[in-house]
Amino acid sequence: MQHKTILLITLLILAPSARADKAALNSAIDARLEDTWQIALKIWDWAEPGYQEVNSSALLSGMLESAGFTVERGVAEIPTAFVASFGSGKPVLGILAEFDALPGLAQEAVPEQTPRAGNGYGHGCGHHLFGSASMLAGLALAERIKAGEMPGTIRVYGTPAEEGGAAKVFMVREGLFKDCDAVLHWHPGDRNSAGDPTNMARISAKFRFRGKSAHAAGAPEQGRSALDAAEIMAYASELLREHTPDFTRIHHVITAGGKAPNVVPDFAELYYYVRHPDAAVVQDLYRRLLLCAQAGALATETELEVENLGGTYNLLSNDILTEITVRNIKELTSITYTDDERQFAERIQKTLAAPVDLALTSQVIDREGGVSKGSTDVGDVSWVTPTTGFRTACWVPGTPAHSWQATAAGGTTIGRKGMELAARVLAATAWDLAHDPDALVRAKQELDRRTAHLRYAPMLERNQKPPLDYRNSPDEN
């Protein structure tokens, strides 16, 4: 009883100080919030493809460097990847920052589908907000380290090409996370939630067929159609779906298939994703998909070339870290819409298949759980260091990711409010972890338990290089 009394008195003495320190943390965010929003808008406007985010990466890393961070650029043989560090010693706390855009989602910041002129890319997953909020949290935390109020090292990891490029997998393989005590991430969404559900492991690959061109009417027998090979592979993979484990996802696009119907196509390309919650199952499914490709080449007498773009593991949740994140997001969430934002949101809702209550922006969904149907290379990070994440309402409730509606909201103050909340939650969670070494020990123990009978090995081919041109058109490859 005496020990409990002493502990309670200690907590009562420290609590006002802790609140004051977090108030200083939030003041640091307030001071940089407008500048950060302008940075997010620039990245939204640039909308750069994966591995080609030259301006976005330079802007974020440059801001960190100007604030005293030591920045290492071009890590893991990726020109747009960087690691920015401030402070010294333990604990080492990482914050992930993404900034790549998606093809086909160019959109003005208006509530009607209005494509923007430019490269055709748009931030339909909100990574302009992701990278900017992570940078902002890092800057605020660095100020507290510099003031002597927070121990350890804060690292902001600039991680390109999350959308299919698997950059973090190459960064993990390079050992860039091996000394981290914990890694934090977040993601834009249509509501606020904390706690990582597990998700789908994934392998992506491009299958290229090369045949012989000929006049499709005058000399068809002299041609060997690469398009036929691609169509055979696509049909075989559709039949494969019936004989796969539950929760399997196989999807593809045909990125090249000829230029004119009267010319036998001598080149065709398909781009595939294979997903399942278990990485081992994904690897076997990919083996079977290769057989479908080989069948197409064999039947059409064409040559097959396969480019494995890398695989990502499923996320491993961490209950110890999640408890701290949940506490902070519940304490800090207070998103409400202005009249203009509500009018924008109501017009967006008219375009949605399943609109939901706008009041969700001020609520928090506690500990998502279950299996998310998406994939992310954050999964690989979570297998090597304790990792936790959350989502904030950057889009109108009911908005699906990878949509023009998400791109539009991300360019408005609705996106700004979600970005601001994310920066505050990241900073508060990192602050709590830096001052609670026991939580970090227990988080590591939890990770060790989860992986005790599993062996992590990146789903990369031997000596595989980052696919820096994976967003190029087939003609450019």
Please describe what this structure looks like.
The protein has 477 residues and is an alpha/beta fold. It has two domains: 21-199 and 314-450, Aminopeptidase, CATH 3.40.630.10; 201-310, Alpha-Beta Plaits (2-Layer Sandwich), CATH 3.30.70. It has twelve helices and 14 strands. The chain has helices at 2-46, 54-66, 127-146, 167-173, 226-240, 279-300, 319-332, 339-349, 378-384, 404-410, 413-434, 437-450, and strands at 70-73, 82-87, 92-97, 102-103, 121-122, 153-158, 182-189, 192-194, 201-210, 249-256, 267-276, 303-312, 364-366, 387-393. Helix 1 packs across helix 2 (54-66), helix 2 packs parallel to helix 3 and helix 7 packs across helix 11. The protein is globular. Mean pLDDT is 93; it is low at 1-17.
- Strand fraction equals 15-25%
Question: How many domains?
Answer: 2
- N-to-C terminal Cα separation, in Å? 71 Å
Mean pLDDT: 93
Q: Strand order of the main beta sheet, please?
A: 1-2-6-3-7-14-8-13
Low-confidence stretches: 1-17
**Which overall shape is indicated by the principal axes computed on the Cα atoms?**
globular
What's a concise summary of this model?
The protein has 477 residues and is of the alpha/beta class.
Write the layout of secondary structure elements.
Layout: H1 2-46, H2 54-66, E1 70-73, E2 82-87, E3 92-97, E4 102-103, E5 121-122, H3 127-146, E6 153-158, H4 167-173, E7 182-189, E8 192-194, E9 201-210, H5 226-240, E10 249-256, E11 267-276, H6 279-300, E12 303-312, H7 319-332, H8 339-349, E13 364-366, H9 378-384, E14 387-393, H10 404-410, H11 413-434, H12 437-450
Parallel strand pairs: 3-6, 3-7, 7-14, 8-13
Antiparallel strand pairs: 1-2, 2-6, 4-5, 8-14, 9-11, 9-12, 10-11
